[in-house]
Design a protein that fits this description.
Elements lengths: L2 E9 L3 H10 L4 E6 L6 E8 L4 H12 L6 E7 L21 H4 L14 H11 L4 H19 L3 H10 L3 H13 L2 H28 L7 H4 L6 H20 L3 H9 L3 H12 L3 H28 L7 H32 L5
Antiparallel strand pairs: 1-3, 1-4, 2-3
Helix pairs in contact: 1-2, 4-7, 5-6, 5-8, 5-12, 7-8, 7-13, 8-12, 10-11, 10-13, 12-13, 13-14
């Protein structure tokens, strides 16, 4: 999925300007034709490379302006035949020599893997919504995780991590901050709190109603946390955000296992329901550390990858939101680091 096709539906009077913008931005191909059945309307199809489609989308939206009546549709292109050649270099630019170039082979450009902000927003918007399906997945994954940890069954616990939908709202919150979208931030935060609260309540009820020894390795390991766990959570949070912005969703499964929020949240509830407040404190610290590290690392990735709004005013709002959010998570991380240091056993 290295190319994108942009379809613009607008008035016929805007076609020439849109074609000029697309050609100026280095589009691979531009087609324009009148829409059948609608007088005065036209469609422009633009094929573009992955490293150019964001700037092209911005330029097209600026050209169309705020008036209603137009629509842009972005479609991933699996392949196109023949594959477009590499863009030609300027005469004064030195070309890198390689064996393939020496033999005259034409190779497709290396995909950058980048996604536009519109694609990212569309994915995280769904993840930030809570409803019947979200609640059902939280309930089912909690039940699986609780009994998996009680039975000390690693495979069952891993399965619960994969089906739990708790990571999505945290990534959606980071995207909302990067874009300065207060509504997305509020919805993502509410969805995340609802999910974690539901896990805590359900697991506490199971721990109270199902009085079994809370001594399995899978459960007790969630009551212990150290600075190594902080490093893992930061790296995994960055990997989760990177998989989102690059479109490598297959990597997200591994991240969901590496820095899962469900097992520590379920462990907190089980320990509380079983009358083990000290162990619950350790699991709560692990849960808080994972949440903070995921959000902080995801925020850093959004900034470094240039995920920002389109216009100047929204960029200023998003920059302030990113600064405040980053400072907030860093303060929390420092506080949690202090707690980890205080809880660390003193060497003899």
């Amino acid at each position: 999925m290295t190319l994108r096709q942009i379809q613009i539906s607008a008035g016929e009077d805007a076609v020439s300007a849109l074609v000029a913008v697309a050609e100026d931005k280095g589009a691979l191909s531009v087609q324009a034709f009148a829409e059948t059945g609608t007088e005065g309307r036209a469609t422009v199809l633009v094929l573009t490379r992955p490293d150019e489609h964001q700037s092209l989308l911005d330029a097209l939206q600026s050209e169309l302006g705020p008036e209603n009546g137009w629509r842009i549709t972005l479609t991933p292109v699996e392949t196109t035949i023949p594959f477009p050649n590499e863009p030609e270099k300027d005469e004064g630019e030195e070309a890198d020599s390689s064996e393939g170039e020496a033999s005259g082979d034409e190779r497709p450009p290396l995909p950058s893997g980048g996604r536009s902000r519109e694609e990212i927003y569309d994915e995280v918007y769904e993840a930030a919504q809570w409803g019947r399906d979200y609640v059902l997945f939280v309930v089912l994954s909690t039940v699986v995780a609780v009994f998996g940890m009680m039975a000390d069954n690693v495979a069952v616990v891993v399965g619960a991590m994969v089906i739990a939908p708790l990571l999505g709202p945290n990534l959606a919150f980071a995207v909302g901050v990067a874009l300065g979208d207060g509504r997305l931030m509020a919805r993502a935060a509410a969805t995340s709190l609802l999910g974690i609260g539901l896990v805590l309540a359900l697991s506490a009820a199971i721990g109270w109603l199902w009085p079994v020894p809370l001594t399995s390795h899978e459960l007790m390991s969630r009551s212990e946390v150290g600075f190594a766990g902080m490093a893992v959570a930061l790296a995994s949070g960055a990997a989760a955000a990177l998989s989102l912005v690059t479109g490598l969703s297959s990597a997200l499964m591994g991240v969901m296992v590496a820095v899962a929020l469900l097992p520590p949240a379920a462990a907190v509830g089980l320990f509380l329901g079983g009358g083990q407040p000290e162990l619950a404190t350790g699991a709560a610290l692990l849960l808080a550390l994972n949440v903070v590290c995921i959000n902080l690392a995801a925020q850093v990735v959004m900034v470094t990858r240039g995920i920002t709004p389109r216009n100047w005013y929204e960029k200023q709002t998003a920059r302030r939101a990113s600064m405040v959010n980053t400072a907030f998570w860093m303060i929390l991380l420092a506080a949690l680091g202090g707690l980890l240091w205080l809880r660390a056993p003193i060497a003899p």
